[in-house]
Amino acid sequence: MQESTRTRSKIRRKNKGQIDYTLLVIVAFMLAFGLIMVYSASSYNATLTTGDSLYYLKKQAASALIGIVAIFLICKIGYKVLKRFAWVLYFIAIGLCGYVLFFGRTINNSSRWIYIGPISFQPSEIAKVALIILLAYVISKNPARLRNAKDLIITAVIIIGPLFVLVAINNLSTAIIILLIGGTMLFISSPKIWPFVAVAIIGGIGAIAFALTAGYRTARINAWLDPEHHDAYQTMQALYAIGSGGLFGKGLGESVQKQGFVPEAQNDMVFSIICEELGIFGAICVIAMFVVLVWRLVVIAIHAKDMFGSFLVIGVAAHISLQVILNVAVVTNTIPNTGVILPFISYGGTSLAILLFEMGIALSVSKGVDVDEE
User: Fold this and answer.
1) Are the C-beta atoms of residues 74 and 89 closer than 8 Å to each other?
2) C-alpha to C-alpha distance for 312 and 364, rounded to whole angstroms
3) The pTM is what?
4) Where are the beta strands (DSSP E) in the chain?
5) pLDDT grade, residue 374 (50/70/90)?
6) For a FRET experiment, which of 126, 191, 285, 358 has its CA 20 to 30 Å from that of 86?
7) Is 113 helix (H, G, I), strand (E, B) or coil?
8) Which residues, 6+ apart, have CB-to-CB distance to 118 below 8 Å?
9) 53-57, 170-174, 232-236: least confidently modelled range
10) Is 255:288 a contact under the CB 8 Å cutoff?
């Protein structure tokens, strides 16, 4: 018995300083699969618009390379260094989100991108990770303070409020994700439930009133409720793609709907192309991979060596979970159509680089953590 105990102890000491390789393998798989699907979903459109079928794949691969470098650097330096720059990163995000409102590049009637020479990025994606880092720092610095409902509300208003308002002006769906990420982190940090219930009720009423105050928002809801008889072309084409895929799909690269029927198939609607090419079975496998990914993040958060690391990973898990749920819900017409991309798989350079940076944070937290119960 003593020998067995000593053996397990040696194994655990041997694992100290190593990252969570299960998480690393999952991220590597999702990244590779995402690049394949970006090419599959975008090659037809890229050939028509640019003459290069690899156009979107090249740009996505460049962002992936930046993200991989970010993973290496944060694992090398350590996540604790982020404490020193928590407020700096937050104010940089605030500044960029404010800047893009006046000087950002307008695409599809929305000013969401900043261009610096050949480089472009979305400040709203930077805002997500900046919020996660700052809230993790604030919560870990004085956790007892958030047990007071007044201080909890003040923290939410001061930290989450400015980012939510700035991003919501041009990108309501991303602003809602920012609000939910922050709300999730604060909810887990506080034993008080009633403030969150009150905010949820008020927010629900406000959302309904907001949706009914403009004609185009009402039209979007009508299109969600009855897509066949309203202007819901993208949703209907996505549903056709899902339905035509059957159980095992038409085969990788064999989608018909990506050939000009589903607008920007490589972006928000890439999940419909997955369903068409790989079938319901392939879609379930993709969702299962996300479930395993989030599960590993939860395990790392539970076993983190300090509260700062734990809440960093909680924020990352909330970010990925929310985007997966909302994207799949939009594509299947479970909720009204809104622009939310599928993590690691949809085309989007800034999003991919930031997500990989977040994975680097989680891997850094996992170093030295014994995540094996046996």
Assistant:
1) no
2) 11
3) 0.89
4) 105-107, 110-116, 119-121
5) very low
6) 191
7) strand
8) none
9) 232-236
10) no
